[in-house]
Each structure stands twice: as structure tokens, then as C-alpha cells.
Amino acid sequence: MSVRVNPFLLLFRCIIFSCFSVSGLLGTSELSYVTCGSVIKLLNTKHNVRLHSHEVKYGSGSGQQSVTGVTEADDSNSYWRIRGKSDIVCQRGNPVKCGETIRLTHINTGRNLHSHYFTSPLSGNQEVSAFGEDGEGDNLDNWTVVCSGTYWERNNPVRFKHTATEVLLSITGEQYGRPINGQREVHGMQYSNQYNSWKAMEGIFMKPMEVSRAGVDVHSEL
Question: Check: CATH 3.90.226.10 for 7-15+28-219?
Fold first, then answer.
């Protein structure tokens, strides 16, 4: 029997067990930014839950893989890889700029954070799902990083605006029952408010490249 191997999960394991940190390449200011290629968890600062996905599909709307918020900090289904939008390469280790368009690829399933004009099942806002295969989906996987300043700073909350429909990635607190009891609904909202504020948390933050050598900064709970 052939076994399907998720290339993003393999990359994640490679980074943890095989890569090394190159000392002397960075100053403290460079370490404070979120960078392309990093694998991170995102915390909704209002409800204190992390952006999550899993092999559970919506029973209504698009029927695609569901995206939720979970309270557990150590759940491996909450890791997302930062990539460039469909037609642009996001060079590994480059700081992500405020206003830059990215994709967030779910590590364990290889699907991208996605939205479209379907209604979310609990709140009636816009559905957010995970879509694609092995990291490749369509132009509805693109999100713009909304923040002040020049770059996405690790210590500061940001917002994610869906590039095609202009909704903001949000959680207002609605909770699912079985089979994902207690997980929060993630959806898109039109207006900027406390429900669409996100902060980078645990993960592996790729350092800028120098002379073809790559380093990583591993941040707790891996």
C-alpha cells in the first residue's frame, strides 16, 4: 500500500531535527520580525485561542476542510507555514512587510487558509476554510498582512485581510459541538475590531540567508 507523504510536514520535521542556528548573522531587531518560510502558531488576542485546522469538513457551505480556534497551546494541528502569494516567491528568511500578501499553509494537511462567499455555519459571517492540495490552491488563498510600521513584528498583533473579498480573519466566540466540541468558529468579518487581532506565538522563525547558509530561531513549545 502506498503512503501519501505531506511535504510540508517533512520540511517541518527537517527544520526541527536537522537545521542549525547560525550565530552572529542577526541583530536583535532582525529577530523581532516574522519572516517568510517560518512555521508558526497564531493567537487570537481577544479569545486566547490558536488558529487551527484538521481533517474535518464543514457539513454545510463549501464542504471544505474546516478552520477553527483551539485553546490548547500544544496542538500540532495549529502550525501554519508563511508563504508568498500564488505567483510571487516569498524568499525564506525575509521579514514580512506590512501590506504584503501571503499564504498560510497548514502543516499537517498541506491546505491553505482560504475564504469565499459562503456563509459560516454558526455566526452567519463569511466562511473560512482550508483548501488545496500539497500547498497549491487558487487566488482565494491570498491574505494581506495589516499592521503599522514597516514589518510584521513578532510582539505586535496584526490583522489578515482576505485579498479577494476584503474580510478580516476573525473569531467572535461561537463554539462547535461534536465532533469538534468546544472549538471556536473562525470566519471573515467586514470591519476591523477586537475580534480580528492576531499575534505570532510558538514556532520556528526562519532567519535571513547569508552566503547560502540558513538559520532558524525556535520559539518555545515545539
Answer: no
